Amino acid sequence: MCHSVSDPRRLPTVKNNSLLKGDGSPGSVREIPRRLSREQIFVLISAASINFSSMMCYSILGPFFPTEAEKKGVSNTVTGMIFGCYALFDLLASLVFGKYLVHIGAKFMFVAGLLVSGGVTILFGVLDQVPEGPVFIAMCFLVRITDAVSFSAAITASSSILAKAFPNNVATVLGCLEIFSGLGLVLGPPLGGFLYQSFGYEVPFIFLGCIVLLMVPLNMCILPNYESDPGKHSFWKLITLPKVALISFVITSLSSCFGFLDPTLSLFVLEKFNLPAGYVGLVFLGLALSYAISSPLVGLLSDKVPRLRKWLLVFGSLITAGCYMLLGPAPVLHIKSQLWLLVLILVINGISVGMSSIPTFLEVLSCA
């Protein structure tokens, strides 16, 4: 979720009127076409490619990297920091890219982000050749941070382009595109786990990096050029609005829920249920698949029935909290940990996170 396009920090990249009105003139509302234009289809393909590849790059480490890091003498705390630095630098970089998107250009930022990310993903695959200890840790941080910054550029540009191309259907479009985020989360862990189990540490990253690099010429050809208009107000003025601050807290909490599982869930499953690395990836499948399937429905409801958004946020957050109590389960509940229960809770958690996260973009957009 740290890359989720429902992030409010990316809103100042496009002129507010153009987001809400369609052509930017006061009081005008663009009619929603019954059929998508060719340009809109190309935008959807480009956005889907970045959602899919970014989530695969984010999630592929889960099943095997904590184990590999242990072999290199890295503690669980430092492993968690290697995972967490991705989200931190994604946040910081998107603030910078959002500010300078008008000067850089959305298409160039999108394509350049993909190109750099593909290269550093392949580079991550050769880190097993690096000596253990501080050198290995430093290289992991460096490559992971570069990957976060590059994908932040691409997704910030993608959010701006989507808001320009679909001003009246933002939540529906974002909900549908979350299918591809979910697919990336679905395919990343099991694919990474099985490639690691079959061919070793290098192959999962080389394979994925090549896929990302192949998307570069595709997007250079099909992605339309959109001019980004400078925002009239600052990001800080937006974020200090009480409603936006509350929604930002919700997004931060949900992203933390996903991030919490990355360094811990695979080790827990390996120790508790003695599953091989390939099957550990399948455990992640329950969370990602349910999120991918439920997101389009939540996006459609958010667009068609605006009054439901706050209830989706409230009940989604409550259910997510309950899921994390049962995930272990918490010792105070005195429930025995079982694999089927773990997978069931992950499935429910995927749906609840979708309920909480998808409506946030449109809510912050209305505030802007």
Structural features, described:
The chain is an all-alpha fold and 368 residues long. The chain is built from 13 helices and no strands. Mean pLDDT is 79; it is low at 1-33. Residues 43-368 form the Major facilitator superfamily (MFS) profile domain. It is found in: Cytoplasmic vesicle, Secretory vesicle, Synaptic vesicle membrane. It comes from Vicugna pacos. Its main location: membrane. This is MFS-type transporter SLC18B1 isoform X5.
State the order of secondary-structure elements, H for helix, E for strand: HHHHHHHHHHHHH
Which stretches are low in confidence, meaning pLDDT under 50 for 5 or more residues running? 1-33
Termini Cα gap: 22 Å
Helix-strand category? mainly alpha
Rg over CA atoms? 20 Å
- The global form is globular
Give the oligomer, counting copies of the same chain as homo and different chains as hetero: single chain
Main sheet attributes: strand count, strand direction, barrel closure: none
Strand content: under 5%
What is the number of helices?
Answer: 13
Query: Kindly state the mean pLDDT as a whole number?
Result: 79
Number of strands: 0
Classify the helix fraction into a percent range.
over 70%
